[in-house]
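hiii, so i know i said id send this last week but things got crazy w the move. better late than never?? heres the sequnce for the chain we talked about at the cafe, plus the structure i predicted for it. fair warning i was half asleep when i ran it
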Amino acid sequence: MMYSAITTGDLDGNGFIDILITGVKNEEGTPQTPVFEIYYNNGDGTFTLDTSTGILPVTYGSLEIADFNNDGMKDILVNGNKSNSYISKIYFQEEGNIFVDSGIALMGTYFSDTKVFDANADGFPDILITGFNTSYVPDTILYINQQDGTFVQQESGLNNAYFSSIDVADINGDGSLDVLLSGMSSIGEDMTPILFLYENDGQGYFTATENDFNGTYGGTSSFVDYNKDGKLDIFSIGSNTDNINTVLLYTNNGDGTFTQDTTNSQAITGLNMSKAVWFDLDNDMDMDLLTIGFADNEGFTKLYENTLFTQDQPCNILPGNNIGDTGCATFTYNGVQTTYTTVRTADGKIWIQQNLGSEAIATTATDPNSFGDLFQWGRWDDGHQSRNSEIASTAPNPNNPAGLTNDPKFYLSNPEWWDGALATDTWNASTPDDATDTNGCDPCKALGQGWRLPTETDWEAVIEAENITNTATAFQSNLKLTVAGTRSSNNISNAGVRGYYWSSTVSASNTSYAKYLYYSNAIVNPGAGGFREQGSSIRCLRDATYCDVAVDYDVEPISLVSFADIYNETSTVVNATPAYEDFTEMTTQVAKGDTYTLTVTGNTVGFEHDIRVFIDWNQDKIFDMETEYQTVSLLPSSGNDNVVATLEITIPTNAPFGNTRMRIIKDQWNVYEEGEFDACLNAYYGQVEDYTLEIVGEIIENPVTAITITTENDAAPTITEEAGTLQLIATATPAEGNQEVTWSITSGAAFATINSDGLVTASQNGIITVKATSTENSSIFGTIEIEITNQPVVFCIPLFGTGVEPITYVALSGTDIDNTTSAATSGNTAYEDFTSIIGNVELGQTHTLTVKGNTAGNYMGSIKVYFDWDNSRTFEASEGTTLGIIQNSTGLDDQELSLDVTIPEDAAIGEIRMRVLKRYVTVSTFDIPACNNGGYGQAEDYTLNIQDALGTGDFNKDKLKIYPNPTADFITIQTETAIKNIQVFNQLGQLITTQKESTINLSNAASGIYLVQVTLEDDTTVTQKIIKK
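okay and structure toks below
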């Protein structure tokens, strides 16, 4: 297959992954033939080929699978070159695997890439299309799903690109999908390769980050956590600006910046016209790489095994204390050491951020790489959980966990799995050997101390805390949940549509059932019940608390702890203070690699005591005896003499940044032997105190604690002038601290821009939120809201991405609008701005509009006109009228359509816009939107200057003078007839002022064109245009 595109997905809903291919079939002995093929997965390792779908084959394009019209069946998006024309077509699936052209107009491209994802977080798939458009220029268009099977184009902020590649993921953890885009782009007058990372404002508008990546084109760019640190990195393969094959790896630093990894990228051969996919080839839970493409005019297919990680590189770091902080956990799964990312969620607990058995954290709600395995209730990772494991029709004996012998079969038997169920059954045994007839082995226990399956109550708590209401919010949550489906028969059902996650809770009403989280776009139920034989996903969690500890007998107190900036003196009196004292509000900074002296004193009541020091370096809420424990002896002391115990403590260079706990246990010497105690065992005679250490890279003098944003000269946080500016000032506290910040617009980026000095420049009306982030500490920032008004509303620009079939004549009787244009279908412009052609009309008058156009053959073309009567710069549906249909017209023949247009009495006085659209249609009832975004056709805009006709027939305009015109401040109106009223309107039709006096002060008005409407005492009305300098 040449010039091909391929995608995979469960097209027919049977739980098995199907394959879609399009391109040119090139087999020896047969002519080259464009084909579109679907290979349906039969579930037994074989596929059934379907070539009779009627779907158009393409080359140099892409394919996508998604449920575009929300009918529960997967549809197909086809994009690329079809017989020297470029198409982007959606085919809706109907019953019986039948596909029907939706008729949705999308921009056609080739040398392209497309991506279907939820851009505005409403739970419905949107479409991003890039590539060479029909005008032979690179383009990028985002189409937003209107939740009814239709799409509307939306400004996206993304660069145009061809030879392009797109990937999406939530790179900054804000719950919205961000975009990675590479390709050849027109920047200024030059074509240059790009590799840009764009952050999503949550509504589908994207802003490029400040990372300076090397650009590529003709390849693949993707997000991938190749180094297993829980953060998505960036990979790109293709050609660079010097047309040299290149491979790029950028490691995510976790603060919005990336560092180029040339060491690991050098191991990968650069290819052009290439494709690449990351996946876990060898089931070792890290991502391997497959590439295909050209180098030196020779084709290559290369497979790379990820060898960054070996069995002796475990990672067991719990997340920090902030919601969304991540860590990692290394454990053995299916006999292979693996590492998963962990996350602190809004319920205060710590969860793994991916399903057991999955290849990676989800990048979208329907990411198949994140689906993972499906467990039967009460079972562990014995192989049965694999999605294609063998079905067993005979139950084990006994038919409960005690009867399992690491049998990798999935039991769909009669009686069903664990049929002798009791309400007291549990699923919390630590190992398979600990399993009994009433207690299954919890697969989460393999992650280590404290890890377990969630209960029904746990699911309820995290659903509420993370505000999970549908598939979109489930993915946007810190859990990154995916709709992995379920297994209850030979097939897997609802993969990509619904999520099923076990809890360890047994149903109280039906003991054969166990509880699970069930969710879709329609419902979220953390207490659903199902048979234990059902295959469902598993997430693991642990409670994020330190163990409690006390003293068994007398409290023989610690009287002093001195460490770095901590100096804490307490009582020396026996049994006068609590056995455990929480001093964690006392915090000191300690720097990696530095050594500090710990000094401890205390009352030993005449005996020698041990001072046991535990510091939770990896912040996992567990004090490890091997790596996080030191001890020193305290000789007999009263606690207020000169006897001290000192210990030199060096901060590990690999300790994660942030707060952690130091626990000091003072206990009578020789009570316990080594190995008989830990940080969670009560002292015999003594006391326990806890403190907080903040681990930093270096000790910062005067660290920044807050950022405050103000405006220059304390101006109001508003911009009211067209393209106006507002200077912001960021002040760090304390004043002696680092005052440097980075500026960004976190919401409303479409309404304004901000430069590196904090200068905001308005472009559209709206409210924006500006953020100033400390360069010293990215967790310290300030925000301010700015309201922007009085910006000109910009008319939408209609698009005809498929091809131009032009309007050839537009005339409005009795006016200067009488415009003949080219009938050519090539080299013409899809949208033409003729607003310099002005038709003068009066309220209540009727004029005849006449339109002609070229239908490019025996096809139907519908013609519609819109008038912006209220001068809102938005064409409302009520302002549009269809003239009718022309067919098989050259645009130069006698075919024409006419419409009598009466100027409404309530129309805005002054200049308004008229838009004429012509579009190819297959049904005469098709309604052309004013902001048309596809199909064959053309649009033209004109200007109407509306005058109030009342009394003007007998009025000599020469007898009214307005001067000076242009003016810098005042105008004077001179007329022979007394003035009744004067109104001044801006170009938007907004009333600026109304008065009776003949002198008007316009000194505070913005520069521009204004309409002055003068009403005289005889009710004559005259309108004239003036210019304010």
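btw The longest strand covers residues 580-591. thought thatd interest u
miss u guys!!
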